[in-house]
């Protein structure tokens, strides 16, 4: 290993991915340079920690943030750790409530520019992960790190610890080889999976910039738009009885499926009528369903949890365009649920209760925005359509990330001789690239001035 420092965050409590002390050697980082950094030190074995974030209600990100802070300081960044605070967040619409932030700090590292009218840039990534469920289906232990060929396997390796590592590589190379005119803020945030309160809290503290890049996994494609998300809970009631009463009592699970069929039909209507030039069509995904106490009893209650993703603008077949908000989609969902309930004798008298407990508005950036063209010139990709297979490993079984993709985007600007924007007029824009593909997305509308 030599004198390699760590960097590749593979879990809320631990980080991995290799930070090479010599920026000129970044392009030559090999699998042997990638190590696991756990709370107890450096090892390649299992770290005995687990995490179930329950959509952001709680998490265990602090150790990873402290490790990252150390690495940021080593490359000369000013750093600050600060836990999100609901006294700052409550004024924002759709802010998810009830999350615990004790021991869950955001981290900001600042590379200060010369102050000569340079444009500022935020590089943003989240350190939290989804829970590693169904561990028996993982080829490798999700709470350790496995390096097989050119791929790292661990929970969060794809979404999005490799992105954070790549941004740290990039800022480190810039810091060692020159000075920018504008400031660069490297943000490692908590609670992205729970709705984005980590980033929102930084905005509430005044952390904004002329532009922002979020290193989410897009397979190296520039994304200038993102879908909105409504995470929804639907509660359906029935009558608990012995199965002998099947024909006279209401089965809550069966009634829930009646509601689901209506939402499935709504999704198909959206697929046929709502389009966007760079994003997939809207979707309604049933992610979790639970009800009943045993196979020998009619269930009295059933709960469904759904992910509803919608477009920032909807393009109809006739070419017309309409801006879309989460409130628009809520009305469509409510109409579908109430119409299905009215058609069922039990549900019409006992309508389901439903709520949105995570609301993220979509966003889009005008493709004429200068940063997009600078990234396209240096990175070689135009704003591109993203299909679902590009996220196939994000947050799920055998999540992995290719080492080559991590280092590819750290080096491209420096190799082109663009000097990373050092006092050449576009400081903060001509930055070394981000991991999977610059994602001008999700929280960017909050981060940018």
Q: What's the helix count?
A: 10
Q: Classify the fold: give the CATH topology of the largest domain.
A: Aminopeptidase
Task: Determine the strand fraction and express it as a percent band.
Answer: 15-25%
Structural class: alpha+beta
Distance between the termini: 43 Å
- The arrangement of helices and strands along the chain is EEEEHEHEEEEHEHEEEHEEEEHHEEHEHH
CATH class of the largest domain: Alpha Beta
> What global shape is seen?
globular
* Low-confidence blocks of residues: 1-52, 384-397, 403-449
- The H-level CATH homologous superfamily of the largest domain, spelled out, is Zn peptidases
Q: What is the arithmetic mean of pLDDT?
A: 76
Order the strands across the largest sheet as they lie in space: 5-6-10-7-11
Rounded to an integer in angstroms, the radius of gyration calculated over CA atoms is 23 Å
The number of distinct β-strands equals 20
Please identify, by name, the CATH architecture of the largest domain. 3-Layer(aba) Sandwich
